[in-house]
Write a structure and sequence with these properties.
This protein is about 30% helix and about 25% strand. The chain is of the alpha/beta class. The strands form 2 sheets. The protein has an 8-stranded mixed β-sheet with strand order 4-5-7-6-8-9-10-11, with helices on both faces. A 3-stranded antiparallel β-sheet has the order 1-2-3. GO terms for molecular function: hydrolase activity.
Length: about 300
């Protein structure tokens, strides 16, 4: 066997060799959790023992001991295959997000494809949703930051790119099977940043990484193709952020248009950053357009449910 024979490749993401080896084209770094003396945001990592999934928590500056913050569960992007909740990109962004929006954030480190085929990323993320819900209304959860400072009457889900896809799917799953999370956790909003719902071309990542349904009309990948499911979303508001030059921009707009027509009772808003490409805000976090995007999120997360 020629160990260097390539059997599958997605440019910029990964290459699969005939002997089973997988080469990732972008390797992320690792940043330790820390306390930020400037913003007052503290972070720490928790391994959830029931399922061995790790999360990084971000607690904003506390001004009184019993202070409660809206709770945000965040899913990082990377085409289901690269990046990490612990990379410089995402640790820096979540620190800023917690500081600017004043939310207690839970950033999920889910398993990546193609080593772990879809639905591993969804399964890990749902496990964290259930773990978070255990802390609501005096439940069995033991994480002190969540027990003391999370406002479970105002819970948001968010993510960028593939993470926005996961955020949508977690909201969808909660909407179809609410009893698994319980009534004490109220999902009020969904913020999708440059969501990865594909485009009108065949998708090399999804078709390889989701062998159980490689077709791109899968409701997890292209939810707008299934309006009857979208109408069941339990949250009351959704924000969609797109980039004018984003190669997957159009599906974000389609999701918005279908939401308005499908019978869903909530409020949806879409905001586009003209002239910017996919996840520009992670690459250029201090530019004026990235600051404007952050302001959209501030306004969204600070609204009452």
């Amino acid at each position: 066997m020629d160990s260097n024979e390539v059997v599958y490749e997605v440019p910029r993401f990964f290459r699969v060799y005939k002997d089973g080896r997988i080469e990732k084209f972008r390797k992320h770094d690792f940043v330790h959790p820390s306390d930020n003396p400037i913003t007052g945001v503290r972070s720490k990592d928790i391994v959830v023992p029931e399922n061995d999934v790790t999360v990084r928590l971000y607690l904003p500056k506390i001004t009184q001991n019993d202070q409660k913050f809206p709770l945000l569960v965040y899913f990082h992007g990377g085409g289901f295959a690269i990046e990490s909740a612990f990379s410089t990109y995402y640790d820096s962004y979540l620190h800023s997000l917690a500081a600017e929006t004043n939310v207690l954030a839970v950033s999920v480190e889910y398993r990546l494809a193609p080593e772990h085929k879809i639905p591993a990323c969804y399964d890990d993320s749902w496990a964290i949703m259930k773990w978070v819900s255990q802390h609501a209304n005096g439940g069995q959860g033991t994480e002190p930051w969540l027990k003391s400072h999370a406002d479970f009457s105002g819970v948001f889900l968010s993510g960028d790119s593939a993470g926005a896809n996961i955020a949508h799917n977690m909201m969808m799953r909660a909407s179809l099977d609410e009893d698994k999370l319980g009534d004490s956790l109220k999902l009020v909003g969904l913020a999708l940043i440059h969501p990865y719902f594909g485009n009108n071309e065949p998708d090399g990542i999804w078709s390889y990484c989701c062998p159980e349904n490689p077709k791109t009309d899968d409701p997890r990948f292209n939810p707008a193709a299934h309006p009857s499911l979208l109408s069941k979303l339990v949250c009351s508001k959704i924000l969609i952020c797109t980039g004018g030059k984003d190669f997957i921009r159009d599906r974000g707009w389609t999701y918005y248009e279908v939401l308005k027509k499908c019978g869903w009772k909530g409020e949806v808003e879409i905001k586009e950053t003209e002239g910017e490409e996919h996840v520009f805000h992670l690459v250029k976090p201090t530019c004026e357009r990235a600051k404007a995007l952050m302001k959209w999120l501030v306004d969204f997360f600070q609204q009452s449910g």
